[in-house]
Amino acid sequence: MVKLMQESTKSEAIELEILIIRHGQSEADILEVHEGRADFPLTEVGEEQARRMADFVAKEYPPEMILSSTLKRASGTAGILQEAIGCELRFYDELREFNNGVLAGMPRTEAAIKYPLPKGGRPVHIPIQDGESVLDIRYRAERILREILHDYQDYKRIAIVSHGKLISNLLKAFLHQPHGDIAFATGDTGIHLLEVREDLRLVRFLNRLEHVTHE
User: Fold this and answer.
1) Residue 140 neighbours by CB distance under 10 Å
2) Is 147 known to be catalytic?
3) What residues are designated binding site?
């Protein structure tokens, strides 16, 4: 006979909650350039998005620790979140965005001429010049997620502030998915909530954006 789990038991079974948050709008978003490792700061709109996200998270899902990419658009978002929460903030280079090498900061029109994609797309094991490959970022996401699960297992809830492609790969790592042709979209300051239990990895929600889409 299967017994329904009481809400209190559910709560006790949760070992760790992970909020994964994308940064707010950056200057690169309005300049039509490849961003990746190019280090652009938040725009005024991005700062406002971050404040709204921080207010929502502080009220509904306050973390005990914030981990952030070192790139300005993410660290700026994480700093605004920290001000709202008051918890510790730590920075990790491994949470930076996909390393797009020579494309970083380059106008998209120029990149299409200088570095056109090969016919059929770039093979997953071959990086752009001076960058990393699709397989590289998938492995990086796997490694940093395992480090976080190990190093922060004594926390009840942590937040990770990062970037679109790295977040997509973190979600794949959490769900034990290969690199494949699957991707998870995340809007500016989109929020994902994951739960780690003793015998289960649970996705509570993905890409919540009501803090910026609702007035």
Assistant:
1) 20
2) no
3) 73
pTM of the model: 0.91
Annotated binding site for substrate: 73
Active site residue 150: no
Which of 17, 23, 163, 211 is catalytic? The answer is 23
Put residue 17 in one of left, alpha, beta given phi > 0 → left and psi -120 to 50 → alpha.
beta
In terms of DSSP bridges, do strands 200-208 and 65-69 run parallel, antiparallel, or are they unpaired?
unpaired
Number of domains in the chain: 1
At 82-100, the pLDDT tens digits run 999 999 999 999 999 999 9
pLDDT, residue 5, reads 39
* Domain containing residue 173: 15-213
Q: Is residue 5 part of a domain?
A: no
> Which residue in 17, 35, 97, 132 is the catalytic one?
97
- Give dist(CA 49, CA 29) in Å, integer: 14
